Amino acid sequence: MKNKILIRLFGIVILFLFINGTYDGIWNSYKKWMPKDFDTKNNILLVDDIKVYDKKGNLVKSYVKANEQMREYMKEKYPYEYEFVNVDSLNLSDKYKDTDKYRYCLVWSMNTSKTYTTYKPSAPTGMQFQQNGGSAYNTFTISDRKSNTNFGTSKGTSYIIGTFSLYINTIVKYVNGELEKPE
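The structure corresponding to this sequence follows.
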């Protein structure tokens, strides 16, 4: 019983450190992923309308939920104009051809990695421990449509809304002048 409590407590501490590290990574590295002249006070920020389909062609419900959460978050936290768009068909629409009005787009991506760990103790038994697994995390890129340049970071979380909220909070502080401009 005592071991289970310690294991749970250890898990909570690790989770806290991971989330805190991701937050610090996005917050503290904004100068690397924020365009120098980024300002959405006088134009409209485009936000990727995430659509992921299963093998049968149906929308995956967890991504539908993430989109709903992103929309609610934008209504609550983002004080400037924005539109959710399907990034894949963005250039097909005449509406978005004005890259002064629709200069920046916040684009979602999921990154995956495979992890293989082998542990060989020095004991003469020759025991081996092998772990095959992987991880996936969500991140966002700011696409400057006028200069055709992408600005991003490899920092993210496994929850879209968690990553999204960190980016939006940083963007709002940056646009409001609360963060130093990149050089």
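The radius of gyration is 20 Å.
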